[in-house]
Amino acid sequence: MASTYLTRTPTTENINKLTLSCWVKRGSISNNSQRIFSNPSSEYLFHRFETNDQFRFTIVVDGSETTLRTNRVFRDTSAWYHIVVRWDTTQATEADRIKLWINGVQETSFNLATYPALNSSSDMFNSGTAFEIGRYSTGNNEYFDGSMSHLHCCSGYAYDASAFGQFDANGVWTINTSPSVTYGTNGFFILKDGNSVTDQSGNGNNFTVGGGTLTNTEDCPSNVFATANPLQQNSTILTFTNGNNTVAEPSGNSVNWTTRWGMSTLAFSSGKFYAEAKISDIGSQQLYPIGIVRDEDIPGINSSVGTNGYGLYINDGRIIGFGNDIQTGLGSFSTNDIIGLALDADNRTFQYYKNGSTLGSQVTNITAGTYFFTSSAYANHGVQFNFGNGYFGTTAVASAGTNASGIGIFEYDVPTGYTALSTKGLNL
């Protein structure tokens, strides 16, 4: 949603209770503030990650700003965060009038905490001002970068996080897809099980896409998919967009013989996993669109992943392992080619594919270990990953292949017994 936002004009309503619940997965971090909910009326509210990755909720009540801003920061781009804010000025205890939960646990340590007066109310919903999701409309900025799911707003009603989720037997906070709550006049429930902005609360408070492209994804709170990891790379030049599934080195950079490389957010030491990489910019030097590297072999800041793992030279058609040729003469590649990689960590083999056809022979007897998918290049390049989300960038796969595990959507048929690298895939 990096340039995407949703909008709806509410009816005028003065309230003293409000609940906001949402699941979000961050993309870029530590840059600009990023808004989730935003209503820039005279008695405004906003709900965002700050530039330093703290979370902040602010609401104006009777002309006075009240705020909770966390001490801790939220920088895990591999995880979904469930954020619940309960605002209830009828509570006798001041600190109970605004409460915040992250993944089912109430936040109690704040960098800033100011509370509303007892029984005060706010006309934050105003028919003259649009309620927006994903940006700050007045400044046309603070766009949210990442994914969102199951957004609830209950106007005039106050609920704890337990209304929207629960801990499973392993102590993991999980989603309640159909909570029993009352939504109130301006309340809504959108982005349920997909990218629909049609209100599921029964109120008919539908949103519209005000700008950008609202892309569906298989990645969701109940099945977290791997993405490229902006926190595990050896370059500040690389850009990560589209939920960190598109990785590029902007044009104009000079050739640097220290390769740029990055890793997937998830890794595995057993099982059979498949992923695809579409080449959007072949660059001016060698490119490994997708490969694998063991956890203990992740290269240092000035080292090449090609000498520490297994990758594919796109220029001259070589499969290499730890800097040595494994196979040669596999042909060249072009922009828009899709390279698939199937790794069997149980039997320690991997197989490359080009546009759905096997590329070379299966590589056997690789070293056992915990493996990440990786990508690397020497100069300007761009790769769009599909770890099972069903998209390259913002474009859906042209014709989904078969996947026997039923997890993830790929362009080409997934080899029998293989699956997507996701939390469900890891637990097959």
| CATH class membership of the largest domain | Mainly Beta
Number of helices: 1
CATH fold title of the largest domain: Jelly Rolls
Number of strands: 34
End-to-end CA span: 30 Å
- Radius of gyration, Cα only, in angstroms? 23 Å
Largest sheet: 8 strands, antiparallel
Mean of residue pLDDT values: 89
**Unreliable parts:** 254-258
Overall number of structural domains:
2
Strand content bin: 35-45%
Structural class assignment: mainly beta
Shape: elongated
Strands in their spatial order, largest beta sheet = 11-7-6-5-4-13-1-18
The CATH architecture of the largest domain is Sandwich
**Helical fraction:** under 10%
Please describe what this structure looks like.
This protein is mostly beta strands. It has one helix and 34 strands. An eight-stranded antiparallel β-sheet has the order 11-7-6-5-4-13-1-18, with no helix packed on it. It has a seven-stranded antiparallel β-sheet with strand order 20-21-32-23-28-29-30, with no helix packed on it. The longest helix has 4 residues, at 423-426. The model is unreliable at 254-258 (pLDDT under 50).
